[in-house]
Amino acid sequence: MFNIGDKVVYPMHGAGIIEKIEEKDILGEKRKYYIMRIPIGEMKVMVPLDNIDEIGIRNVITGNEIDRVWDLLKDSASDMPDNWNRRYRENMEKLKSGDIFEVAMVVRNLMLSDKEKGLSTGERKMLTNAKQILISELVLAKDIDENEVLELVNDAVFSEQ
């Protein structure tokens, strides 16, 4: 169970801060919800308490995990299927996992692929979403501003090129 003020990650949405816990009556059913504010895009999300394990809500990364994300971003691209449909599905599964390291690999691979040969519209949209998820967590983990994190991500991915 999380508390008000906790920094958590909601897979496919990004990282945010739990602002309150409220009981709501939705469609005649009373349930408790975390009210979470995601700073990037100023989005508010209601997460049912009884579904947090299924949804995959987890704490924001810290210390060594942050270093590991930077190391992953600096690595060369991993092998991806040539077939764009299969590649898209694999990347989507990684994003849905909520695992920051999987998200970092998607960001790195798509950024490098974009630089090398460009991306399809679908993959460009995926890259934008993946970057938002990654950056939102790094903003809260490092307690620095969104633009600074974006610059650090770009520097990390293109440092060896």
Give a nutshell description of this structure.
This protein has 161 residues and is an alpha+beta fold. The chain has helices at residues 52-55, 63-74, 84-97, 100-117, 121-142, 146-157, and strands at residues 7-10, 14-26, 29-38, 43-48, 58-59.
Q: What labels describe this entry?
A:
161 residues; alpha+beta; Thrombin, subunit H; Methane Monooxygenase Hydroxylase, Chain G, domain 1; 2 domains; 5-stranded antiparallel sheet; 6 helices; 22% strand
Structure in words:
With 161 residues, the chain is of the alpha+beta class. The protein folds into 2 domains: 7-59, Thrombin, subunit H (Beta Barrel), CATH 2.40.10.170; 63-157, Up-down Bundle (Methane Monooxygenase Hydroxylase, Chain G, domain 1), CATH 1.20.58.1290. Helices cover 51% and strands 22% of the residues. The protein has helices at 52-55, 63-74, 84-97, 100-117, 121-142, 146-157; strands at residues 7-10, 14-26, 29-38, 43-48, 58-59. The N and C termini lie far apart (43 Å). The mean pLDDT is 92.
Describe how the helices and strands are arranged.
Elements: E1 7-10, E2 14-26, E3 29-38, E4 43-48, H1 52-55, E5 58-59, H2 63-74, H3 84-97, H4 100-117, H5 121-142, H6 146-157
Antiparallel strand pairs: 1-2, 1-5, 2-3, 3-4
